[in-house]
Design a protein that fits this description.
The N and C termini lie far apart (39 Å). The chain is globular. The protein has 285 residues and is an alpha/beta fold. 41% of the residues lie in helices and 19% in strands. It has an eight-stranded mixed sheet, sandwiched between helices. A two-stranded antiparallel sheet has the order 2-3. The chain has one domain: Rossmann fold, CATH 3.40.50.150.
Length: 285
């Protein structure tokens, strides 16, 4: 498998991830102190949903496409977290065409202040070249580097505050994600006060339960689980749902995440009965 995010850009999982990413950064902005955003798998940074890759999968049709078709009355009923996300997408589409959709580094830079910095990793040569072309911001340092070793080399950042977004392609991170459990342990050990967010796919609930048990055994405190499943757990499709594990979530983030996911669920679910969204503490204080 040679993963390319172009096939999946703008799908329901991207919507969920980017809505929550923006809220994590907005919460970091509530304090005056500078912070650093670190993206372990930056991808191309920007996508065109009119390309053959995106059209072939058509995944965006059940993601961002559903939301941009909503009437303004419905959009105004959405939580602020969702409205902020949709406003960024609307501005990008107005500027660069209806097929335009940003990646995580782009979304992050829209929220970061002039004083904040970003470090973005991407190890695939051709994708990294696209990233350099799409992300031209003096606040962002782009690195053609394997995130598994690169991340540990740049933390803790000199800013001391910040967010790590880990969103691997899940080519080697199979079964119950043992490589990611080890990575999270190492990151938290080196930077115990950093906010760490891991996006993960939900295809097999038993596997996710094993992953959660491993994370509990790490002894890391303040682990928050955010999930949205657009299909029931037992539906034999490629992706039933996705989750975001957040270590050290900022104040009020859990409530905002819950409100956003509960609003998104009826607009993104694939059938009436079975899909669900939830925000819960895996490990508390």
């Amino acid at each position: 498998m040679n993963y390319r995010h172009h096939f999946h850009a703008g799908n329901f999982a991207d919507v969920m991830k980017h809505v929550l990413l923006l809220q994590l950064l907005i919460r970091l902005n509530s304090k005056d102190k500078v912070y650093r955003y670190i993206d372990t798998h930056g991808g191309a940074g920007f996508y065109d949903l009119s390309t053959a890759e995106a059209q072939k999968s058509g995944e965006f049709l059940n993601g961002i496409h559903r939301l941009v078709k909503l009437d303004q009355v419905t959009v105004r009923s959405a939580p602020q977290a969702v409205q902020q996300y949709l406003k960024i997408v609307e501005n990008v589409r107005a500027e660069r065409g209806k097929g335009a959709y940003p990646g995580s580094p782009w979304f992050a830079l829209t929220q970061m202040r002039d004083i904040d910095k970003a470090t973005v990793f991407e190890m695939q040569r051709d994708v990294f070249q696209q990233l350099k072309s799409n992300i031209r911001d003096k606040r962002a340092g782009l690195h053609e580097r394997d995130a598994y070793e690169g991340l540990l080399a740049v933390i803790p950042p000199q800013e001391k505050r910040g967010l790590v977004m880990i969103d691997p392609p899940y080519e080697i991170e199979r079964k119950d994600f043992p490589q990611l459990v080890e990575l999270l342990q190492n990151v938290h050990r080196k930077w115990p006060t950093g906010v760490i967010a891991l996006w993960y796919p939900i295809k097999d609930r038993a596997m996710i339960e094993r992953f959660e048990k491993k994370m509990i055994k790490t002894g890391i405190r303040r682990q928050l689980i955010c999930e949205i499943c657009v299909w029931p757990d037992d539906t034999p499709v490629g992706l039933n749902g996705c989750g975001l594990l957040v270590i050290n979530p900022p104040w009020q983030f859990a409530q905002q995440a819950s409100e956003a996911l509960q609003w998104l669920l009826p607009h993104l679910r694939m059938q009436e009965q079975g899909p669900r969204a939830a925000v819960r503490w895996l490990v508390g204080e």
